[in-house]
Amino acid sequence: MEFEGLKAIVTGGASGIGAAVAAQLNKRGATVAVLDLDPGQAASGLLALRCDVSDDQSVRAAVEKSATDLGGLDIIVNNAGIGAQGTIESNDDPEWHRVFDINVLGMVRVSRAALPYLRRSAHASIVNTCSVAAIAGIPERALYSASKGAVLSLTLAMAADHLAAGIRVNCVSPGTADTPWIGRLLSNAPDPTAERSALEARQPHGRLVTPEEVAAAVCYLASPLAGSTTGTNLAVDGGMQGLRLRSTQG
Ligand code: NAD
Questions:
Q1: 201 and 87 in one domain?
Q2: Which atom of ligand 1 is nearest to the CA of 83?
Q3: In which domain, by residue range, is 196 found?
Q4: pLDDT value at 84 more than 80
């Protein structure tokens, strides 16, 4: 129970990866506030608050309420995010602004509002949900990949800026994870079964990543046991980012 007594915010914690993170943190002793556009889907036992990470007022109100109700803040998991498909020709300027506003500035707003509380914590940690798309060139994901590349750079810069205050900042980079997000993507594909097989085959371990596997990585980085780990990007992608396999062994 290494999170006993610690207070955490998980954005996008009502679904998929965020829901698994909120559940694991809670199970391992943390009290957890879920900040989500759709908090009604959050698991019971968590403080579920409606928050739009693209709206600074909404973020400030939800972070204040979390800190007041939980009695402080130690851990911020910036996980809320949206997807975008296509090449640079596929999305217009407002869509580029919208995705960056949620995926990148959302993390800035939540972290900025939480910093005064984190500075008072003995175990302060921020974990951002990045993506393998930040490092690997994936076709038809120009806007999404650019936003996650920004998350990676932001994570490193924040780790440097807040080290002296004892605040660690890291990110996780999942491969394709089996969440409602991917369910939506598959249901829009002409052949969902073939699309799922293609996504599974893209990952060296031959299957989708589970939200629980990503949550375990987030919990590692968030834990006081990882007190010397900051400015790290932890891949949870079945080897997609780092391995170059032969098609046959030998
Ligand atoms: P999901 O769609 O299942 O969950 C996302 C949650 O974020 C939802 O509950 C949604 O309501 C919330 N959300 C969306 N916009 C919001 C906003 N403006 N303010 C507050 N909450 C908002 O998605 P997921 O697959 O669990 O993805 C979570 C994170 O993981 C995202 O940052 C995504 O980029 C990243 N990621 C996902 C995958 C994957 O394959 N699923 C892979 C790599 C990275």
A1: no
A2: 34
A3: 178-208
A4: yes
